[in-house]
Amino acid sequence: MEQSAREEILGRLRGIPKTAVDHRPDMPPLRERSLDHEEMIATFIEKLTLEEGVVCRVRDGREAVVRITEIAAEEGLQRVMISTDDVVASLDLPAWGREQGIAVLTSRDFGDRDSFRDAVFDEAEAGITGVDYAVAESGTLVIAHDTNQPRLVSLAPIMHIALVSATRIVATYEQAVEAMYADTEHIPSHVTFTTGPSMTADIQGRPFKGMHGPRRLTVILIG
Amino acid sequence: MKIRTALFNEIAEKEIRNTYARAFLKALPATIAARRKAVMDSFPDPDAAQACGQAIRAEVVARLPELLEEFEKNALARGAKVLWARDAREANEMVLAIARERNVTYVTKGKSMVTEEIGLNDALVESGIEPFETDLGEFIAQQLERPPFHIVGPAINVPVEEVCDLFMEKAGMDEPTTDPVELGYAARLFLRDKFHHVALGVTGVNMAVAETGTIINLENEGNIRFNKSSPKTQVSIMSLEKVVPTMADAMHLTRLLSRNCTGQKMSAYVSMDSGPKKPGEIDGPEKLFIIIVDNGRSEIYGDPVAREALRCIRCGGCLNICPVYAKIGGYPYGWAYSGPMGQVLTPLLLGLDRTQDLYRACTLCGSCREVCPAGVDHPSMFLYYRSKDVEKDRGLRGKKRPWKESRFFGLWSRAVTHSALWNLGVRLVRPLVNRYSEGGVITTMGGYFKGWFRTRNLPPIADKTFHERWKGLRRKTTGNQSGENRQQ
């Protein structure tokens, strides 16, 4: 029988005598590890602002809705796509939309992926999502995608409004990742890190935002 | 993509006169070095952070087979399909089979060096499937049918006027413009439509985590995220050395990759897939195929020196700092991988015989080794390739030098290692060589040696050898010896 490519490749690799693995050198922990809660928040805001993300801090969910109302007015939003994760669900944005006369769509309004895809690409003027962790070291948003957190909501619309609870701030990527990947039975199918709006500098090295993903990223930090 | 590694000198001579590209290249090292330093300094100990990355990559090379098996096991457990390809043809056939099964007319692609290596775009086009590169720079390079100029900015050297003409012709742009931002938005609109309706997305892989079976990609534009979100089928292609032991290792390498690549603390987007989408999720791939490409690497693995090339994580840090790259840009390297990274990888993948000038176009200054977060010792690799080439090594496909050169250096090597021969030789050769001395310097000798003098001069051979002078000195018991010392 012909040997499979897998067996052939692995066989060849295994056939080479093993070499010793050197001890990993020590590395001092990142400075962010010694920050207290408020310092982490300050660092997160500073880093994300450097990447041209806009961060506003509010006291609670009610204030968050007020802030979203202001943004909607500033941007003239008519239709938004929202995720249905716990953070967003707690704000009852569909009710808010009815009050404001803004169409608030969720993936549950669509029977199949194609009609959802049409709406998120062509209709939604902003995507509003919750965030699982905010990482201080680089001002990074960590999102685990699942049935309540479709991938395209934070990607396809030109504006992304991200809601994150101040209790979900961590110092480093490892802390966020440890929490999400610890239970091997429930590892999320897709996890994304977002550090600022979509960007490129591929023509002449001139940087600009909004290459394929959102041109603007606004983070509402709750608490 | 056509392999043009044999034309290195020819293309380099042309590119060195490309004033437009030169202007960009001149600014690159200083700009990127300053940015890199600023972000590296955010580590409490930047050297220790680099050393840690280097240790991770050393461990990957040492434990390659077991890590690949662990990765496969966990990726399968998450529901991904893992395919193994011996070579480029097999890998391309796998993608084509997946595409044909779904009757797709086009695919969108995230930037991936390994797909350049295997020539996936050509294979797709030949089968009537249109590939769209979706990274802006790669999109431009693809439409212009040029190899990547730089791993991070594949078309960063292309003048705006040329991009404008291209987009008017091929990207449905209505009004001409030379504003990079407007050009970018035109590409956004064009590719957005492709993303909207795409059925098959193709990406590369930056890291494959053995511990969890997760594949990780870094990017700034969001095009890779679209490729992983919009289509029903995702194919991610990795060369086998992309595996890393743990998620924590991957996080540290992510830091180093961003910093060494673009001088960013973190790329705008990182996306991590553990299997396809789960039931009930409305977007993301229903099927996730991971193709592990060997393409000669398992052979390279048997060579304890050459295998160190497998440490490379394709950050491009070595290109940014290389004085040779800074003069000639990416085209002369003639294939998917340019700069020192390409000079290390390409000879192993294509053979020393087809890449003669690649590992010789180096001053061995060591700047690349100094910045490399993976711990590749480029200069030592080049010396190794040169020696293997001269020895006509079979495994690495050395070519051997022209017989006159081999003969000359054979004699030379004998002469310089035997003092009697050397002293005799000096006495015999001195009058022949010094004939060419003019004003105390030899600028050419003609004949076989002409080429040597193209970029260097030679001082005339001294009237007395050191040994002769030493004997003279010993005879003098006292007195000023400076006259003797100054003698030429």
Determine the CATH superfamily of chain A.
NagB/RpiA/CoA transferase-like
Averaged pLDDT of chain B, please? 94
Which fold name corresponds to the CATH topology of chain A? Rossmann fold
Strand content of chain A: 15-25%
**First-residue to last-residue Cα separation of chain A:** 65 Å
The radius of gyration computed from the alpha-carbon positions of chain A, rounded to a whole number of angstroms, is 21 Å
> Biggest β-sheet of chain B, characterized?
6 strands, parallel
Q: What is the 3D shape of chain B?
A: elongated
DSSP helical segment count of chain B:
22
Instruction: Tell me how many strands of chain B there are.
Output: 10
Give the count of helical stretches of chain A: 7
- Annotated CATH homologous superfamily of the largest domain in chain B: NagB/RpiA/CoA transferase-like
Stretches with pLDDT under 50, minimum 5 residues of chain B: 483-488
Tell me the structural class of chain A: alpha/beta
Largest sheet of chain A at a glance? 6 strands, parallel
CA distance, first residue to last residue of chain B: 56 Å
Protein model, in words:
The complex is a heterodimer of chains A (about 220) and B (about 500). Chain A has about 220 residues and is an alpha/beta fold. Chain A has one domain (about 40-200, about 215-220): Rossmann fold (3-Layer(aba) Sandwich), CATH 3.40.50. In chain A, about 30% of the residues lie in helices and about 25% in strands. Chain A has helices at about 5-15, 35-50, 60-75, 85-90, 95-100, 115-120, 175-180, and strands spanning about 55-60, 80, 105, 125-130, 135, 140-145, 160-165, 170, 190-195, 200, 210, 215-220. The longest helix of chain A is centred in the N-terminal third of the chain and has 15 residues, at about 60-75. Chain A is globular, with a radius of gyration of 21 Å. With about 500 residues, chain B is an alpha/beta fold. In chain B, helix 2 (about 20-40) packs across helix 12 and helix 9 (about 160-170) packs parallel to helix 10 (about 180-195). The longest helix of chain B has 22 residues, at about 20-40. The radius of gyration of chain B is 27 Å and the shape is elongated. The interface between A and B is large, with 78 and 91 residues.
